[in-house]
Request: fold
Amino acid sequence: MPPFLRLPRLGGLACAAVTLAAVTLAAGPPKTGEPSDQPTPREAAVERLFSERGEPAVFDKAVADARSLGITPQVLLEARFLYHVDRQDDAALAAMLPEFLARRDQFETTDSQIFAQREDWLAVTEYVQAIASLQQNDRDAFKRHITEAFWLSPRQGAAFATHIERMRTADAMSKVRIDFTTKLRPLAGEAETELAALLHDRKALAFHFWSPWSRECEEFTADFAATVRALDKNGIAVVSLLAEDDPRVIEDARTFAKPWQDLPCHWLRDSANKPLNVLLRVQSVPVMVLVSPAGRVLFNGHPADPDCWQALQQVAPRLERPPLAAPPDDH
Reply:
């Protein structure tokens, strides 16, 4: 999910963090004689509060510790908001709506760790209302609140747009039916394979759209491999589908895929005639599309999206998500 307005990130963590200068807004200046380069207990508590992205019990402990040190309710609410945003937990965000509405008119910029203007805070309040409306399948209310959020804080538009795109994609996919007589060519070779033969007696078919020129696809190859093995064991066929037809991309894709030929996965190229990537509205990679044996789209989105695994586990209840591999070290 694109980030909301927030302070600089700490140590590459995919979450909000708090700099020493910003923490002093809530924690106050260091005591006389205290080394300026050493955080106070309150500063350390706030830093942990905004950087912790472990399991809920671990984060709840960070919240409790911060509260015991006098961290304000406004800062606690902001930290909890970003925690659920980064974990893409829409249900938890919707559950926070009463707290946001209660504090709507009590916001003070000097007490905030992440919002520079009152309008930014009001925009996030509208955003939470939009998410709550989406949870209740109230599309009209969602559109009204998300539009107001855009108006109040255009700078946070990328975060708001994510949910709009997901809703539009879901609406479009409800009308799509995959034709299993479609034939696709392998990444290496010309002999076409019919999708029906790949599905066979499997519970579902998962398309993985990718590109060898995508840094994200490259970085998470190990996670993809673990996912493929888990899906295969649970009766879900996987097609890793290259959408591009540029000869250079195809050649690089063949080189990229060669070490992974032992995976229980079909490496194919999309068709130039009625390409699936167009039908399925694939605009970036990686994308996972889960299709039922009846051709219905059960999920269309990023492979790391929690909704992806929820859809997979509805098809295969015994499926367990493999642990994420450590990201590659760029140093």
